[in-house]
Design a protein that fits this description.
This protein is an alpha/beta fold and 335 residues long. The protein folds into two domains: 7-106 and 303-320, Rossmann fold (3-Layer(aba) Sandwich), CATH 3.40.50; 108-293, Rossmann fold (3-Layer(aba) Sandwich). The protein is built from ten helices and 13 strands. The protein has helices at 30-39, 66-71, 87-94, 108-123, 126-133, 162-173, 199-202, 225-230, 248-256, 304-320, and strands at residues 7-8, 20-25, 44-49, 58-60, 77-79, 100-102, 154-158, 177-182, 193-195, 208-211, 236-239, 262-265, 291-293. It has a seven-stranded parallel β-sheet, covered by helices on one side. Strands 1, 2, 3, 4, 5 and 6 form a six-stranded mixed β-sheet that branches. The two termini are 20 Å apart.
Length: 335
Amino acid sequence: MGTILGPSYPRRCAKLGSVMRVHGAGQWAPEAQETVGRLTRRFASWTFGEEPPTDTEVWVGPGFSAEHGRRLPRLRAVVVPWAGPSRELVEQVRSVPGVSLHNLHHNADATTEMAVALLLAVAKSVAPRDRAMRQGDWGGRGRASSALLLRGSTALVLGYGAIGRRIARVCRALGMRVLAVRREARAGDPAWVHPVARLKEFLPEADALLCSLPLTEETRGLIGSREIELLPERAIVVNVGRGPVFDEDALYEALSTGRLWGAGLDVWWQYPSGEPPNWPSRRPFHELENVVLTPHCGGWAEGIDEVRFRELARLLRRFAVGDWTANAVDLARGY
């Protein structure tokens, strides 16, 4: 859904009943237009296409630039209908005074499920056992050394946002001890949530490191060779955040030498740019038996677009009653 949502919200709307002028940028399927129109009909009037009307107040979708902002005097907000806005988009919005940037968390449940699926698949050696069974090889049966027991182990959740909170709840339900780090601890956080400045203190306790961090200047390369060395031997790494949070070479070396038990990776350092094969890294992660690879699909599931549109409608309704803080991106930090 890279081409589905659009522009801004009027400064005048302070109570439900006023109608926002919302523009859906890019290519919206007719059924998508009908759905968002129906869900927001009480407080939003929509247009769709490449060129927004000059009275646009909320821009929803891709393609926003500072030039659009200059041509839209009533623009109040830009909404991207996915979780992680690009650095380029953040810079474009930052250059337009009075315009805020917002994202959606509609895929938090789906991404959490992918993170847990990868954790279990790696811990239980599901992929190599599956490949062996397809060759008639029952060698994995009865071998305790080919699976890890998660109950009683420690999960360190890297990023405690919409996805990280859900991952933590599931890990606790599995009987794991949970620690989490986020940019800075907040009032109301559980006692086991800590500022990221203490990350190195907790890495030696992490039997499983689960990352849901966005990519920013602060998070790029956050987990390098030194951090990986601090993990216990035969720890598990799961990444559903962004690939470059991890140092590509350091992670590969730790996995290929067997220092880490394994990894489940849904996000990468390279993405398709032509006909297959399109390898996701400079290093041959795809050759490692202890790595489960998925093509950055964690946020997708049957019915996810309906969830997306309902989440968008809830966000626009917050705008319509004057709450412009919902899902707001920190433009200084990039997330």
